[in-house]
Amino acid sequence: MIDKIKELIAEAEAFKAQSKEEVEAFRIKYLGKKGLLNDYFAEFKNVANEQKKEFGQTINQLKKTAEDKVNALKEELESKEEVKGIYGDLSRPGEPIELGARHPISIVKNQIIDIFSRIGFNVSEGPEIEDDWHNFTALNLPEYHPARDMQDTFFIQTDPDILLRTHTSSVQVRYMENNKPPIRTISPGRVFRNEAISARSHCFFHQVEGLYIDKDVSFADLKQTLQYFTTELFGKSKIRLRPSYFPFTEPSAEVDVYWGLETETDYKMTKGTGWLEIMGCGMVDPNVLENCGIDSKEYSGFAFGMGIDRIALLLHQISDIRLLSENDVRFLEQFKSAL
Ligand code: DAH
């Protein structure tokens, strides 16, 4: 019988448990009222006298081993639970770190800023809620000027003087009012027009305005700057300037980039001509300079304005402008590898 008890001691020593339930079952088996130890203690009186001492010592040893084991396992499991409470299951594999993506508008805007900053243009900003002076009047568009209808405007109902800016040209005015020439600045921002929403146009979109004011600035400077820009952004240096009209520039032009016909699969992009219109520009009208406190006899300059959204659609082969404001992650995730 003593050998049997020694076996039980070895078993108890080797016992391992993963849960409190297993520890409890172990405790009941050895130390419970109807457990093994009580059976052996009851057996004590039947043991031959000369064996009593060894028998007694052995069952005491079994008792101590079982008790120590129960205490040790309980402590171990409790400390594990504490850790789990704070950190979760430490044996699980790590969470993958999700990479975000820049919005295509930001990607293209940053590219444009980067290109112009290399030739000395800084970045300026103005408010989206504007007054009539900065959006229209100072830009040579006095009240009742027919060209105001070129841009369907959202007015603030209670105050006809306050509106959502229809173009970033308003920032030109603010910049000239607050800075002395030489001026070289680009102004990216969001603009608003009361237009029907479709795949090609939206009631809000983004523009970058450019302004260069100094002594003796010529139309040739404008053309050279734009040629540098299109080469950097599109990898295309062939441009053409078509005469146009904007109230704030004289002369005014529209800029086309020669895109070629290789990508003209659906006839939509350049309508079979190979030329793509990308911006408006011109020499700043002397009236605008004077409205902003700059002496038009001493200074001249050029300005240009382009839509970021359309360029983003073009560069990233996006078919619908509405995708740019819907924030569908399945769309946005596709720009992870872009700049
Ligand atoms: N503000 C014009 C628009 O919204 C774009 C523009 C054209 C800006 C000619 C200019 C410019 O600075 O010179 O359509």
UniProtKB/TrEMBL annotation:
Assembly description: Tetramer of two alpha and two beta subunits.
Organism: Ichthyenterobacterium magnum
Designated name of the protein: Phenylalanine--tRNA ligase alpha subunit
Taxonomic path: Bacteria, Pseudomonadati, Bacteroidota, Flavobacteriia, Flavobacteriales
Cofactors demanded by this protein: Mg(2+)
EC number(s) on file: 6.1.1.20
Cofactor: how bound: Binds 2 magnesium ions per tetramer.
Location in or out of the cell: Cytoplasm
GO BP, sorted A to Z: phenylalanyl-tRNA aminoacylation
Family: Belongs to the class-II aminoacyl-tRNA synthetase family. Phe-tRNA synthetase alpha subunit type 1 subfamily.
One GO cellular component term noted in the UniProt record for this chain: cytoplasm
